[in-house]
Amino acid sequence: MTLDAQLAARSPSKSEAAAAFQTWIRRVVTGAAELRALDDGQLDAIIDPATGNAIMLPAAQVVLHGSRRIVRNAFDALPSGICVLDPTGTVVMTNRAWRAFAVARAGAGLGIGEGGNFLVACRNADAGERVHALAVAVGLRRVLDGSLSQFRRDYACRSPGGNCAFTLIITGPANNASPHVIVTRENVRERKQTRASHGRGRARRNRIVTLARAGTPNRLLASLPARDYARLRGSLEPVTLTYGEILFEPGQPMRHVYFPSDCVVSLLTIVEGHRALEVGLVGREGMVGSRLALGSTQSSVRALVQGTGAAVRIASARFLRAFRESPALQRTMLRFADTLMTQVSQTAVCNCFHVVEERLARWLLMTRERLQTSEFHLTHEFLADMLGVRRVGVTTAASSLQRQKLIRYQRGNIRILDQRGLEAAACACYQQVRIKDPDARSA
């Protein structure tokens, strides 16, 4: 029998099985409201009365596989090398940048792949990098046992690809909500040169311009010394950013950079040409367009305004001129770029390993910090796009938070009622990405 004949012979049985499954579903789902929800595609799973087990419907399985593919593609798009470890130190996931480093360096610099054990790799490191590797092993064990939330180590090694130096950042959860640990590899050679050549600038820190003097609540601008802020002030243009406005698209030149005051901008990775997943959030603590300080003139993400408000902007050419002339601005921008990369890395892993309710609580808290208000307008559709889930998942998560009296949600208007309770409901990632400044909680 030919292959076509075999397929034709099998197809009726598949159709019969699908029809029998639909008939069984109709027998199990009897309520009028439940049947309407089933017909409208609002049910993801049903409970088998014979076993008590939840059975995911075929349409939901297709969406789940698609969401996992989106998250994996976004993870691979991150520029820093990242791997995820389980509680034993075994690598369970790596992104493209991590795998490329491992291939180029033939495994040197702890470039191990999925399935390898990080602690074993540290113990078996070559003599030239063994001191670094053993220090990393000690730090990793402390993160794994919960005695340390984050460990950083400058690392140098030799390999067939040449000498290299980088920083390994090992991040664990603030509590035991998740057993996974994130390891990020970042190049620090240029950063060390910058710090060494501009160390004399530390003596001028007592001249920091405060937020009130600058006339804008953007904290990054407020941290600059008076002389360095003066280089920018004449070129800063007040603007109003409106909800839904796109500042950058991937691959497009960044003609301006933006310093938000009381608005929030989402950084989205575009997958398969049209689907989007949020990987970062920028507000009053930072700048939109920080890649410019790292030598790139094109955006790698879509920058979407999610909360209308004020900001100041400056033409990219003028910003780069001030950046080249100001060691203090260079240090400030590199620190922010490092902070943003930590947020992007943590968000990518959060989207993989934490449930929607925890992620929604984290996202609401991050938005509140940046808008400095406990009330804002966000639709279910918008939240679903930001979190990379179906709208029904956001509805279920928001309803749960509302039943716990942590938020009030009505027609897109969200009000946080209990911040401490919402922090307890959020995943541990929030403690890693929250704004680290004295008044972040005082709004």
Q: Which structural class do the helices and strands define? A: alpha+beta
* Total domains: 3
Spans where pLDDT lies below 50 across 5 or more residues: 190-215, 438-443
CATH topology of the largest domain: Jelly Rolls
Major sheet strand order:
4-3-7-6-5
Overall 3D form? globular
Main sheet makeup? 5 strands, antiparallel
Into which percentage range does the β-strand content fall? Answer: 15-25%
Supply the CATH superfamily name of the largest domain: Jelly Rolls
What oligomerization state is this entry in?
single chain
Q: Rounded to an integer, what's the Rg over CA atoms?
A: 25 Å
Number of strands: 17
The first-level CATH class of the largest domain is given as Mainly Beta
The CATH architecture of the largest domain: Sandwich
What is the share of helical residues? 40-55%
What's the total helix number? Answer: 17
- Cα end-to-end separation: 74 Å
Instruction: Compute the average pLDDT.
Output: 78
Tell me what you see in this structure:
This protein has 443 residues and is of the alpha+beta class. The protein has three domains: 79-194, PAS domain (Beta-Lactamase, 2-Layer Sandwich), CATH 3.30.450.20; 208-350, Jelly Rolls (Sandwich); 354-433, Winged helix-like DNA-binding domain superfamily/Winged helix DNA-binding domain (Arc Repressor Mutant, subunit A, Orthogonal Bundle), CATH 1.10.10.10. 44% of the residues lie in helices and 21% in strands. The strands form five sheets. The chain has a five-stranded antiparallel β-sheet, with helices on both faces. Strands 9-13-11-12 form a four-stranded antiparallel β-sheet. Helix 3 (58-77) runs antiparallel to helix 12, helix 13 (356-371) packs across helix 15 and helix 14 (380-387) crosses helix 15. The longest helix is centred in the last third of the chain and has 27 residues, at 327-353. The chain is globular, with a radius of gyration of 25 Å. The N and C termini lie far apart (74 Å). Residues 190-215 and 438-443 have low confidence and may be disordered.
